[in-house]
Amino acid sequence: MATEKGDKEITADVAKFELRAQTLDPNAPELYSRVMWRNWFPVGVAMLTLAACGYDQSMSWDIPLLSAFTTDITAKNAVSLATFDSLTNYSGMMAAVFMPFAYDWKGRKFGFMIGNIIAFIGSAISVFGTLDVSASNVTAMYYTGRFIAVLGISLSAGCSWMYASEIAHPAHRAFFGGLFGICWSVGNLINNIIIFGMTYMEYSSWQWRIPTLMQAVFSLVCIVLIPFIPESPRTLMSKGKTDEAEKVVREWVGCNVGSDKFVRDQMEELRIKFENAPKNETILETYNMKPLWATANAQRRVFFFILTNAILNLFNVGATGGVFVTLIYDDVGLGQDRQKTAISLANTVFGIICGYVASTYLDTFGRRKMYLLAYGISFFLGFITAGALEGYRDSGGVKGYSYVWVAMIFVGTLYSSPMGPVKLLFESELLAYSYRAKGKALNDFTGKPSSVILTYIQSAVYTAIDTRSYWVAQGYIALFFVLHWFIMPETKNRTLEEVDEIFDHPSPFYTEWFNRKSGETNYVKYSLDLLKAKDEEAS
User: Fold this and answer.
1) Does residue 405 contact residue 345 with C-beta atoms inside 8 Å?
2) What is the pTM of this model?
3) CA-based, 20 to 30 A from 483: which of 41, 144, 197, 354?
4) CA distance 518 to 232
5) What transmembrane ranges does the database entry give (predicted)?
6) Closest CA to 198 of 10, 400, 59
């Protein structure tokens, strides 16, 4: 065959399609085999960072369930809770300013490390900086520490999936993306368990200090482990360190069992992509935003990425829960701290199960179909539960009303379970390496202010119509279904570099629609057929 005649006779196209064919090659390392520790270890450290992010987000929603917190830190009303929750968005917007520098200048590991160090310092301030201050200053000190902690968590978590997607074996990237979504839920679960445990503790400020202190533990573990993981091969290629990148591809991506052909094909693809890529050798170069709109391909990819994330941000308006869940529980007759935290704990476990199922089928079922299926099922179930809530509201059945409202929260979890995995996959698949950090920074910087506004809108919606806000949630689920039907392309079964092919077409969605209508959805079969044709032509 032509591909066996030597490296010089392997064209860029052949190498590209060979690598695609190998993406799902049965000879790739088994996911749970012993040699895969070289993939699991660096990806696992990144997962721990995202678990810390999930823990932090869950804590911002669950810690107001504790009476000690609403007594010492923030008032128990919609506006005060919205202000507390918006700290995450303010800090995330600040983190976006530093993302291009932190991720591109020295590499992904640098972004990891600096983010975790900042998070550790912020958590320590929130816990210990509030011990020796007057009661009137406790809130200010806690908010200051939390702002710093979330700044660090946003930096490290934003880098985590970029790094993991670039170090993971192509055959297992989608599954790891699913696990990342689950890790966010695992962070939730750890927080739920701790918050639930705090309800058995004697009333004191340590009821909210201990959960806050756990943030520092996550960061400390990451700080210890990060020096032992390799740098991203794409970062090394962008710095011109080809030999080091090839070593990482062989030893960590291929787990030292990948064939020479696998390494050669992947390196060939990387050389093509990074031949003229910016090196980001100075801080100013990391802030050069021109790659975001330099080509039509880049413009389409950035547009789809930001639009998809904007749709997800809208979910904040209709979400049945979030930081306002403590008010909802009170209104439906579930006012005890232990009741509220137990429901939150069960909901998180349910989310982990749903997330694992979604991650298992992300490559076989596809990102697009997974999203649309979740929307469809959740809208159907949500409509039924919303109708039941109206019936119990009119009949005055308080107990039944409480039960159905809890069911509505679980429906929301079912709806959002594939969001985490697909959103993470899109961060690496919709943005090319040369502007991946810049695109995420632009998205976060523009998206966080809108999230703040939407949070206050949500508080106004809840104040005006209280628990009837579930009808708003149903409306947004229907809107999301329609929008994703028309704007969401399919990126499964492709290496990160091969996603270019989708966006080389002026209408990426319609290209994918044509492929589905013509029956050409098996990209691996398509690649092998193309290789066969090239071999026959060469012979």
Assistant:
1) no
2) 0.71
3) 354
4) 37
5) 40-58, 78-103, 110-131, 143-163, 175-198, 210-229, 302-329, 341-358, 370-389, 401-426, 471-488
6) 59
